[in-house]
Recover the amino acids of this structure.
């Protein structure tokens, strides 16, 4: 049955085996948790994180934050279009007068999101009450419902707990996903069975994600939940950065498995899993579920969709 977002979510998302000799020769079984197939507009973990916050917004303008290539901004804009909900995206960095928006922000604008650019210093202070209040005053959104950058808050973490619950009872030992703000990892780990563990592959540099994930679990559940760890060796230079080698890997993986591989998150996670397998980080007999948190986003002229995580 279709809901207010027009298309019924595909839940639980499919869990499919991917036969890949890079894993098989080490005795590792690879499964793909296709969260990218949940909903055509709120792809992947965006469905799990945004829908509880959309309900809490109760028709108010939804204000959120992101960089110039933020998947979260695109997903929020798409949700606003589908629900007729006003959205405002606070974008890190100065708008370049006379220059067209990049494809990511152009997609947001096409979906009706109003964009407000702030300098990087202000953006760093966006969670401080006085700075946030000034941003809301400047944009005329004092009564807005505010969602943090990346969409990760206690509601989102609880929404992502179902991801872990869906992986119970399928022989999965390790559930892996790419991470930016830690919200999906926090919920995933909380939903897994006691004999399962979650592995996060950060896509940002900085080493802050462990503390952020613990903080989110405390806000959502009152303390740390589940078994989880991080491996931060696969950022490829940081957020929104790729290399020719990573692009070639993603193209090859996609051809092997019929999967359009999103570059900024999913490709880094899959690359990390191949590297870890070749390092014998997983004992023989391990079943690894790679969570496909999103898909590449289309050009502005294509059918409107939100992108990955």
């Amino acid at each position: 049955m279709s809901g207010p977002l027009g298309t019924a979510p595909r839940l639980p998302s499919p869990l499919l085996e991917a036969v890949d000799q890079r894993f098989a020769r080490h005795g590792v079984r690879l499964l793909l948790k296709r969260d990218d197939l949940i909903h055509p507009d709120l792809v992947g973990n965006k469905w799990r994180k945004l829908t509880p916050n959309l309900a809490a917004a109760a028709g108010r303008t939804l204000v959120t934050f992101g960089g110039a290539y933020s998947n979260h901004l695109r997903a929020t804009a798409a949700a606003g279009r589908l629900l007729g909900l006003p959205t405002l995206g606070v974008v890190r960095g100065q708008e370049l007068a006379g220059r067209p928006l990049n494809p990511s922000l152009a997609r947001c604008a096409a979906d009706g999101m109003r964009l407000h650019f702030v300098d990087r210093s202000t953006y760093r202070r966006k969670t401080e009450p006085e700075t946030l209040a000034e941003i809301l005053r400047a944009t005329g959104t004092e009564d807005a419902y505010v969602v943090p950058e990346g969409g990760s808050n206690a509601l989102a973490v609880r929404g992502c707990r179902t991801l872990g619950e869906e992986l119970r009872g399928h022989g999965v030992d390790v559930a892996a996903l790419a991470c930016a703000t830690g919200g999906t990892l926090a919920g995933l780990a909380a939903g897994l069975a006691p004999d399962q563990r979650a592995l996060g592959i950060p896509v940002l540099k900085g080493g802050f994600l462990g503390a952020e994930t613990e903080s989110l679990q405390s806000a959502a559940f009152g303390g740390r939940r589940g078994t989880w760890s991080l491996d931060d060796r696969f950022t490829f230079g940081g957020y929104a950065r790729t290399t020719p080698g990573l692009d070639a890997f993603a193209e090859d993986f996609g051809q092997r498995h019929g999967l359009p591989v999103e570059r900024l998150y999913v490709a880094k996670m899959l690359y990390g899993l191949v590297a870890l397998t070749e390092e014998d980080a997983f004992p023989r007999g391990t079943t690894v579920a790679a969570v496909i948190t999103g898909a590449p986003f289309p050009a502005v002229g294509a059918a409107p969709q939100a992108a990955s995580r």
Observations:
- The chain has two domains: 15-43+152-291, 45-151.
